[in-house]
Amino acid sequence: MELNGKRAVVTGSNSGIGLGVAEMLAKAGAEVVLNSFTDRSEDHDLAKMLADKYRVKVSYLKADMSKGDECRALIEAAGGCDILVNNAGIQFVSPIEEFPVEKWDQIIAINLTSAFHTTAVALAGMRANGWGRVINIASAHGLTASPFKAAYVAAKHGIVGLSKTVALETAGQGITCNAICPGYVLTPLVEAQIPEQMKVHGMDRETVIRDVMLLRQPSRQFATAEQIGGTVVYLCSPFADQVTGTTISVDGGWTAL
After folding, report:
1. In this structure, are 117 and 96 located in the same domain?
2. CB atoms within 10 A of CB 147
3. Please, is 62 exposed, middle or buried when counting C-beta atoms within 10 Å of its C-beta (0-12, 13-18, 19+)?
4. Which among 62, 98, 175, 222 could disulfide-bond with 186, CB atoms 3.0 to 4.6 Å apart, if both were Cys?
5. Spatial CB neighbours of 199, under 8 Å, sequence gap ≥ 6
6. pLDDT reported for residue 153
7. Does residue 1 carry a pLDDT above 80?
8. Residue 141 to residues 103, 149, 176, 184, Cα–Cα distance (Å)
């Protein structure tokens, strides 16, 4: 599954799932553009580290995914892309009647609307080249729901619908569009929650992971960012040329319940 000569833009990719995806794409030989809303020396150092490790071009571009003009400018600044991974996302938990309006707007903007903007700009180049991959990182919550996550669930359901629409609009043009739906993935953000959950429930690490955090994930195991990245690489391969307009769950059986 070599991706030499392909340029990939991965939004929200200086940590977590996005970084795992970016690293697997670089490992497969793709040029990679990292992104987040910060512009720190650490961000550019991360790009250099991946470039040195995998002997490919890796750059970092700042763009705030809550702002449509910056989403579109990201793709233009990257020089277009062959592979677009819409990964940027945030979360907020609250009963719907107490859900802050500004949080709803922010989550919908970053988790859903940003993918509309980046895709709208990226498709022209993909059509010109006769090849492209749009891969949207949705969630198990794009296929099911949980209480107190109104904006996140709405956005992820929207990402699934957007993926289907883009797939239909690009069918037969050498372009595919799919959504990956992870369950719980062991990222630094999730790892940081474990000690607090241990304290709240009075459980050891293994028990709180199995019986609290992964209660809805039948495998009782976290997915990894590398596994999500590997799924992205598969979708970019010739083996997935006819895989479009669908969802791929990497959730340990969550949505099989």
Report:
1. yes
2. 9
3. middle
4. 222
5. none
6. 98
7. no
8. 18, 9, 22, 10
60 and 46 Cβ atoms separated by less than 8 Å: yes
Whether 2 is covered by a domain: the verdict is no
Share in percent of the chain as helix, strand, coil (round to 5): 50, 15, 35
Instruction: Give me the catalytic one of 54, 152, 184, 234.
Output: 152
Place of tokens 């979360």: 91
H or E, element range at 72? helix 68-78
Q: Which two tokens stand for residue 213?
A: 């955090």
Dist CA 122 CA 256 (whole Å): 33
Asked about 184 being catalytic, the answer comes back as no
Q: Is 41 within 8 Å of 13 (Cβ atoms)?
A: no
Characterize the bridge pairing of strands 247-250 and 132-137.
Answer: unpaired
Residue 140, both tokens:
């198990």
**Residue 169 lies in domain:** 7-185+223-256
Q: Are residues 31 and 64 in the same domain?
A: yes
Q: Are 176 and 167 in contact (CB under 8 A)?
A: yes
- Token digits for 12? 């929200």
Give residue-wise pLDDT tens across range 120-159. Answer: 999 999 999 999 999 999 999 999 999 999 999 999 999 9
**Number of structural domains in the chain:** 2
| Helices and strands counted in the chain (H then E) | 10, 7
Q: Which amino acid appears at position 130 of this protein?
A: G
